[in-house]
Amino acid sequence: MSDQVVSEIRKVGIVGCGTMGSGIAEIVARNGFEVAFIDIDGAAVDRGFIRIRASLDRQIERGRLDEPERDAILGRIHGDTEWESLGDCDLVIEAVPEVLQIKQDTFHRIDAVARPDAIIATNTSSLPVMDIAVHTRRPNRVLGFHFFNPAPVMKLIELVRTVVTDEAVVETASAFAQTIGKSPVVVGDRRGFIANQLLFPYLNQAVWMVEGGYATKEDVDAAMRFGAGLPMGPISLTDLVGVDTFVGIMEAIHSQFQDTRFAPRPILSQLAAAGFTGRKAGRGFYTYDQPGSSRVVPDADVREPADPQTIAGWQTIGVVGTGTMAGGIVEVCAKAGFDVVVRGRSREKAEAVVAQVAKSMQKLVDKERLSEEDMVAALQRIRPTSELLDLAPADLVIEAVAEDLAVKKELFAELAPHLKPDTVLSTTTSSLPVIDCAMATDRPDQVVGLHFFNPAAIMKLVEIVTTVRTDARVVEQARAFVDRVGKVGVLCGDRAGFIVNTLLFPYLNDAVKMLESHYATAEEIDTAMKLGAAYPMGPFELMDVVGLDVTLAIIERLREEYRQPSYEPAPLLRHMVDAGFLGRKAGRGFYVYT
Predict the structure, then answer these.
(1) 336 φ, ψ to 5°?
(2) Chain-centroid distance, C-alpha 306
(3) Active-site choice (22, 196, 236, 430)
(4) Catalytic residue at 251?
(5) Is 135 assigned a catalytic role?
(6) Helix, strand, coil proportions of the chain in percent (round to 5)?
(7) Among residues 22, 431, 451, 541, which one is catalytic?
(8) pLDDT, tens digit, for every residue of 311-336?
(9) Which of 155, 216, 418, 563 is most buried when burial is the number of CB atoms within 10 A of its CB?
(10) Whole-prediction pTM
């Protein structure tokens, strides 16, 4: 084992020029480095060049590159079938299929031709780097160099150090990653590293929802895009990753952690066995117009749009509550043309909601997103009150009081005698059983959950939660109402957390467990998820915004409902809540605020 380690990267070798290998070759060459890639035969080498050129041509079409620049980049890339072409490279990156034996064999062959001081890196997304490194004579100069797909676009690189990786190797690799415009995060040799270890259980759980018939793939994807602000829904992302790749990564992570959430759902293996591996095959959970295309061919059984005639006679919406959520709902209903009765425990509190709505609308007027006339008309449609009797004309009453089941049940029981027989009742609960509210009334068939997301005036999603008693006509009325107020409605059953919170909060809890295991810092984990998964916020940033106390309460509710050990709240989360570190509202959470 030599002590020599290359101190500067000038030429990069790549083994395998498939989707990932070609992407790595492109980004390295675009930043001025010479690239030598090898593949199994001449046809594979040609396909590699075709992929790279096609990607560069797309950049020309978008005005991000000109033809001389493209030609210069291609001139720095040299393809071959001979391993000896890697002999003068400073860094060799393996990008072969995610199969341990293939990677081990590849490393043995790289080690035989690479310079003694060269660094060898694996692009594995889930396999133990040490199990690969030991198949060389230089395990101290081996590390993981995990690019994210598509490599030319995604900014994150997870640099995976084993227990024997030299510090100089990590420093050289980190400097190189920054030179090619990437943000490196250094992590230990644990299967899945940061991003995949947090991302794939979430994807697997989304598949479970679809597989079990809880929600459609379209609704699950829409829920996470519009409710959590994610760039892509989990089912679409599974198709993009590749169903077969997904199964391989999950099996690898499960073999280390033995957590059932890492065990791929049966439908994944079935799709992979059938050749329905996602976008690359033209069919996965979705069907695409051709292999490799992102254009989805709609299923024959996609739900028809809601019929607006089901609420043609609706004029008045009642909103019970005086918090931020209630104010947001009042605003969207008034702007949609409904008369709105907002009921508070006192008239003063109800009037404060109207003032809150007026302030919110004025901001829209100032930004020229709402006309002065429309604001005045909307405010004139809002009537504050403290009397339940004033809700009598309402066609729909939306409860938006404290997230306390006893309080909600008491309110539902009090409301029923004051309403028209056909008035629909709804709750904005984010995690409590809707059926318990329904059974507190004289009209359980006319109760539905309408889970708006905060701030309701801005967030596009509404989860429409149906109980086993909800009448089909009420479901259609709820869908039509959500359309009328300009929101995206998704249907789901009456389970704790519904779609978004059931998928989001276990992921947040897993991030806290990763932090308390000292595997990575909060900043590193946040960076990995923002740059590696394109999330708008990292998990710790998000928990600080939501509130650590709220996060803990929802996780505890999910554990109570599903009774899975993995849903046990992270001890660190409990300790922080007990210490009063509740996030931004307290000035301190996982971060400190001024």
Answers:
(1) -80, 0
(2) 27
(3) 430
(4) no
(5) no
(6) 50, 15, 35
(7) 451
(8) 999 999 999 999 999 999 999 999 99
(9) 216
(10) 0.90
